[in-house]
Write a structure and sequence with these properties.
Elements: H1 3-6, H2 11-38, H3 41-52, E1 57-61, H4 64-78, E2 83-85, H5 88-91, E3 104-108, H6 118-126, E4 131-135, H7 141-145, E5 148-151, H8 167-187, H9 191-197, H10 201-206, H11 210-213, E6 215-216, E7 222-224, H12 229-239, E8 243-247, E9 253-258, H13 259-265, H14 275-278, E10 280-281, E11 285-286, H15 292-302, E12 306-310, E13 316-321, H16 322-327
Parallel strand pairs: 1-2, 1-3, 3-4, 4-5, 7-8, 11-12
Antiparallel strand pairs: 6-13, 8-9, 9-10, 12-13
Helix pairs in contact: 2-8, 3-8, 4-8
Length: 331
């Protein structure tokens, strides 16, 4: 590569590039704000239809609208709403069979006049399948055919030419997100449900619960409050968690002894003391249902390396060490 190709751009060119990027983001953010203000009754009706849908949500569109439709379908599918994309051109050659009674269709066309949508529109009317139209033209064929019209603000496409789909596709994508989130909130879709759809990768790991990775009760370093520290030291050495939990006769957690507590009491005839006289009372604990990601945050904030996991009766049911989180790739 030539030296000229590696040379930094002149300052005025750099400023021009930044100005272009900032202008696009600014104009599109204004469009989204206008769109948010425009949401009204039809959005409520669309969400009602999609929540009540017993089949699948079919999302369709041509060209750039098709790319947006694919993303909307994927977002809905990953948040508990069965959905998939149907290409309108392929629909005319057999893929209409993928749309069935009980489904709902979201059709996207900024102009509302994409000819390729014609067969899908006719099919929804023939079999009484709800059609949600997303377009910016209220008098268009698609707008008039839809059971519900989600109207996009008629704003110019950002850019010097104003021809390439930019603002319109951003608004459509955001509207799809708004639908997906409103649906999942109406359905009560939980983080646990989300985990079931995302078992792999970093996201799946951060949605693990503490109970999925904690060491079980039989591994716990537990002693009684009257036990001598000589015994406590043996238990701590055997279990290797750097701590011991002190429980009462009913098995409830009273306190904790950590390596730090041992150092603080080392010069005071440590081994002759009882566990009760050395322990830190009312230690921090977590629930087994806590998300692993939240457990990381708790340990980091309190500068701890381990924590006991207790049930609603304050009985230890597990222990979680920072190394467990590191092993799962969560930290």
């Amino acid at each position: 590569m030539s030296q000229a190709a590696n040379a930094p751009l002149p300052t005025d060119r750099q400023e021009s590039i930044l100005a272009s990027g900032r202008r696009v983001l600014s104009e599109e953010s204004k469009a989204l704000a206008a769109q948010a203000e425009q949401l009204n009754g039809p959005f409520i009706e669309a969400v009602r239809i999609l929540v009540a849908c017993k089949g699948r949500v079919i999302v369709t569109g041509m060209g750039k609208s098709g790319h947006i439709a694919r993303k909307i379908a994927a977002t809905m599918a990953s948040t508990g709403t069965p959905a998939h994309f149907v290409h309108p051109g392929e629909a005319s050659h057999g893929d209409l069979g993928m749309i069935m009674a009980g489904d709902a269709v979201i059709a996207i066309s900024n102009s509302g006049e994409s000819a390729e949508l014609g067969d899908i529109i006719h099919y929804t009317h023939r079999f009484d399948i709800p059609l949600i139209a997303i377009t910016s033209r209220p008098q268009s064929t698609l707008a008039q055919a839809g059971n519900v019209l989600l109207l996009l603000p008629q704003l110019p496409e950002v850019g010097a030419l104003g021809l390439a789909p930019t603002t319109s596709t951003t608004m459509t994508l955001a509207l799809g997100d708004a639908l997906a989130v409103a649906i999942l909130e109406q359905k009560g879709f939980s983080a646990e449900d989300f985990k079931n759809f995302h078992p792999g990768g970093k996201l799946g790991k951060t949605l693990l619960r503490v109970e999925n990775i904690m060491h079980p009760k039989e591994s716990l370093p537990l002693v009684r409050e009257a036990d001598p520290m000589a015994h406590v030291l043996v238990v701590m050495t055997e279990k290797r968690f750097g701590c011991a939990g002190i429980v009462d006769a009913d098995g409830k957690l009273l306190g904790i002894i950590t390596d730090g507590d041992l150092r603080r009491h080392m010069s005071d005839g440590l081994v002759q003391k009882s566990a009760e006289s050395v322990m830190t009372r009312n230690p921090m604990t977590i629930s087994p249902r806590l998300l692993a990601a939240e457990a990381v945050n708790t340990l980091n904030k309190t500068k701890r390396t381990q924590v006991f996991v207790v049930n609603e009766q304050n009985e230890p049911v597990g222990i979680l060490h920072i190394h467990d989180l590191l092993h799962e790739g969560i930290v």
